[in-house]
Specification:
Chain A: GO terms for molecular function: transmembrane transporter activity. Chain A: The chain crosses the membrane at residues 6-27, 34-55, 61-82, 89-107, 191-213, 225-249, 269-289. Chain A: One of its GO terms (cellular component) is plasma membrane. The complex is a heterodimer. Chain A is mainly α. Chain A has a single domain (2-121, 144-290), classed as ABC transporter involved in vitamin B12 uptake, BtuC. Chain A is built from 13 helices and two strands; from the N terminus they run H-H-H-H-H-E-E-H-H-H-H-H-H-H-H. Chain A has helices at residues 2-15, 17-31, 39-53, 59-83, 88-111, 144-162, 164-174, 176-181, 186-212, 224-234, 239-262, 264-269, 272-290; strands spanning 124-125, 142-143. Chain A has a two-stranded antiparallel ribbon. The termini of chain A are far apart. In chain B, 41% of the residues lie in helices and 19% in strands. Chain B has helices at 2-22, 57-69, 84-89, 93-96, 120-129, 143-152, 185-199, 214-230, 232-236, 249-261, 274-287, 317-330, 359-375, 384-387; strands spanning 41-47, 72-75, 78-81, 107-113, 134-138, 157-161, 165-166, 172-173, 178-183, 205-209, 239-242, 266-270, 293-298, 309-315, 336-340, 347-349. In chain B, strands 4-1-5-6-9-15 form a six-stranded parallel sheet, sandwiched between helices. A six-stranded mixed sheet of chain B has the order 11-10-12-13-14-16, sandwiched between helices. Chain B has a two-stranded antiparallel sheet with strand order 2-3. In chain B, helix 7 runs antiparallel to helix 13 (359-375). Mean pLDDT of chain B is 85; it is low at 6-37. Classes of the chains: A mainly alpha, B alpha/beta. Chains A and B meet through helix 1, helix 5, helix 11 and helix 13 of A and strand 11, helix 10 and helix 11 of B.
Chain lengths: 309, 395
């Protein structure tokens, strides 16, 4: 029994970080009022650049390169949606398409279709003494992003709710005009949030190619960017909420796998397809129960124009 | 707009290949003796959403069309002539003896990747419009698209791999311009299952499937039957999990980690790109000191992780594609249904390149089983319902 819990926890902790980072990135961008449909594309770019960079430099540095690449793509999104006030959903979808096709094109022209050559994976940290403790031992043996993914949501929540900067970020997503009357720069704050969300999405992507796998696989991230958006909505646009939702998705998947492999009889009663859909079904249920009390930022998706009232 | 883009890209691609065609091919052999056709026949191929570079099913079809039939290698977004050595190295053992018979043909490959299921019909139509004399639909996911295109273009010829032509109700039907090729995956899977049963030390083996469709179930059922034949205990404890996708390596890895944590030491995957994640999990478990093997699928996946791959269940769809292209060039292409098993060399087991105690003996037993399947004394079940009653005498 303890074994089962152990492997459940381990599997969740191993699979969740990429989703958590992307979900946090989505929260950051959307709390500042800029829709984050482009997470999938930013993750893909981050994953690709991190894998390519890791061929020539130490992997941790390559992860930073992946983050910067994600931020660069977010910069395009910012330019379109903040500077030119274009439709944020269209801009995000366009970025996803560009990243999807561009990633494949670059991969094939640089390395052939079989993916980048293998790279040095991020080292796994084995916490002395913890490895042999039942259940809790599952906390040991992960790479650095896993531990960061456990801490960052709380730090981010603190920033958002307890600091002046957090207040401004929230305000710029709810009522940008109010921020402007205080003499603060609405575009400046939004730019910061969008670039930050690009860094986080890039990190999520980089985790996929440097910690989960040891190369860029051409389907990466296979829809994870959209799941991050679902986690953000499920978590009601709060960092800790999004973190819990992302962890819940990863846990739900681990639970399904664990159930199927440990209790094969279950599969005869419930088809695997139903189990596969279960986490998303639960998301729908929660969203339905939430009903009218939507917690989306009030000015989400509305480009800021100084002259508008 | 996207469609326009694809069109432009294809046109560009064709232009490039045409230019090359005019120069005398250096590495490739001239097409069949006698009067040679100057103009290369365009042959189209639409691969499913798994894409190029899956180390597996799509790569096999690409190998058959590009490397074997056209004598070309796809590199950096364009075709270069492949050297005879490259062709020879890509051949499975049972063909390498008569490598000479596998001549490069005067065809010009046009390959379209599909990014989404909605791309299948337009992609097929695009190839027909480009003048492809034969259009290959690779994968069961293209079954409906091939039916639609074949009905709309009665003069064009099609090859559909891995599925029969299905009508709107999902019933098998025949079309006068479609050749379909099905494989008895259960027979190849039976062999790797038998080997897994002999190799496992924990008496626990696992199966990782992609999407649970009849095609993938054939892999599982054959595998289960193979394990049952050589190791009854492992057959009882066999763990089988589906990832629900063919393009999500993270999901494949998560499943494999779970199975390894529960003691499985041989994992067979039939999960497309998810399988890359399965192999990754096995690689990491081996690095952590566990003795675990993965069994690859469709193509010989040994090169992905040479130490970790026990063998691969081979599906020679490359040969089926080559054969169709050859028939086209020879003018003998005909519609109809082909079903290829062990006997027809349609499926098989890749060379076992890793060493383990009792290897020679195990391989001997597997070979004996292979002979018995070919001779028909063992009938490998293909659907889960037949598995319970399947009883093969011990090897």
């Amino acid at each position: 029994m303890l074994d089962v819990l152990h492997s459940l926890l381990f599997s969740t902790l191993d699979a969740a970080p990429a989703l958590i980072f992307a979900a946090l990135g989505a929260v950051l961008s959307e709390r500042a009022g800029v829709i984050a449909v482009g997470m999938e594309g930013m993750m893909r770019v981050g994953a690709f650049c991190a894998a390519v960079a890791a061929l020539t430099m130490p992997t941790p540095l390559a992860v930073v390169m992946g983050m910067l690449a994600g931020a660069a793509l977010a910069g395009v999104h910012g330019f379109l949606s903040i500077r030119w006030r274009s439709d944020q959903v269209v801009s995000g979808i366009a970025l996803n398409l560009v990243a999807l096709a561009g990633g494949t094109f670059l991969l094939e022209s640089l390395y052939g279709p079989n993916g980048t050559p293998p790279i040095q994976q991020l080292t796994r940290w084995h916490i002395p003494g913890l490895g042999s403790v039942p259940v809790l031992g599952a906390l040991s043996g992960h790479s650095a992003p896993t531990y960061l993914a456990l801490l960052l949501p709380f730090a981010f929540q603190g920033l958002l709710t307890r600091t002046p900067l957090g207040l401004r970020l929230r305000a710029v997503g709810d009522k940008p005009q109010a921020v402007a009357t205080l003499g603060l720069s609405v575009p400046g704050l939004r730019w910061g949030a969008v670039l930050g969300s690009g860094l986080l999405a890039g990190l999520g992507g980089a985790v996929l190619s440097t910690a989960v796998l040891d190369r860029f696989e051409q389907h990466t991230p296979a829809g994870l960017g959209f799941m991050a958006l679902a986690a953000m909505v499920f978590g009601r646009w709060t960092p800790v909420g999004a973190f819990l939702a992302a962890a819940f998705f990863a846990f739900g998947n681990a639970l399904r796998i664990g159930l199927v492999s440990s209790a094969p009889g279950l599969v005869e009663l419930i088809p695997q397809g139903v189990l596969l859909a279960l986490p998303y079904l639960l998301t729908l249920v929660v969203l339905t129960l939430q009903g009218q009390r939507s917690s989306a930022p009030a000015a989400l998706g509305t480009p800021y124009e100084q002259e508008s009232r | 707009m996207l469609r326009l883009h694809v069109l432009a890209l294809t046109a560009l691609l064709c232009a490039c290949s045409k230019q090359k065609e005019e120069a005398p091919p250096s590495g490739a052999q001239p097409p069949a003796a006698g009067k040679t056709e100057k103009k290369a026949l365009p042959v189209g191929l639409v691969i499913d959403v798994g894409g190029r570079g899956d180390h597996s099913f799509n790569d096999a079809a690409l190998r058959g069309l590009e490397l074997w039939a056209a004598g070309k290698r796809y590199e950096g977004g364009k075709y270069v002539d492949a050297t005879p050595d490259e062709v020879r190295q890509s051949l499975p053992p049972h063909l390498s003896s008569d490598a000479a018979s596998l001549k490069a043909l005067a065809i010009q490959p046009i390959v379209l990747q599909s990014k989404a299921q909605e791309d299948y019909v337009p992609n097929l139509q695009l190839l027909v419009d480009q003048g492809a004399r034969l259009t290959v639909g690779n994968g069961y996911m293209l079954a409906n698209a091939v039916r639609t295109s074949a009905q709309e273009n009665p003069k064009a010829q099609f090859l559909l791999i891995d599925s029969q032509v299905l009508d709107a109700q999902g019933k098998a039907m025949k079309l006068p311009n479609v050749r379909t090729v099905l494989f008895k995956e259960q027979e190849g899977s039976f062999l790797v299952g038998a080997l897994a049963g002999l190799v496992t030390k924990t008496n626990k083996v696992g199966f990782v499937g992609g999407i649970e469709v009849p095609l993938i179930q054939r892999f599982e059922v054959g595998y289960r039957a193979g394990v049952k034949t050589t190791n009854a205990q492992a057959s009882q404890a066999l763990m089988s999990v589906y990832t629900g996708s063919f393009n999500n390596m993270a999901a494949g890895k998560q499943v494999a980690q779970d199975l390894i944590a529960k003691g499985a030491d041989v994992l067979f995957h039939a999960a497309g790109a998810d399988g890359i994640g399965v192999i990754q999990a096995v690689k990491e478990a081996r690095a952590a000191g566990k003795s675990v093997y993965a069994i690859g699928v469709d193509s010989d996946q040994s090169h992905v992780a040479p130490d970790a791959i026990l063998t691969s269940m081979m599906k020679y769809s490359d040969l089926a594609v080559y054969q169709a292209a050859k028939d086209l060039v020879d003018g003998t292409f005909s519609a109809g249904e082909q079903v290829l098993g062990l006997k027809e060399n349609g499926v098989g087991m890749a060379e076992v390149r890793v060493d383990f105690p009792g290897k020679a003996e195990a391989l001997q037993k597997v070979e004996a089983l292979r002979q018995r399947i070919i001779s028909g004394t063992i009938q490998v079940p293909a659907v889960p319902a037949d598995l319970a009653t399947f009883q093969a005498a011990a090897p």
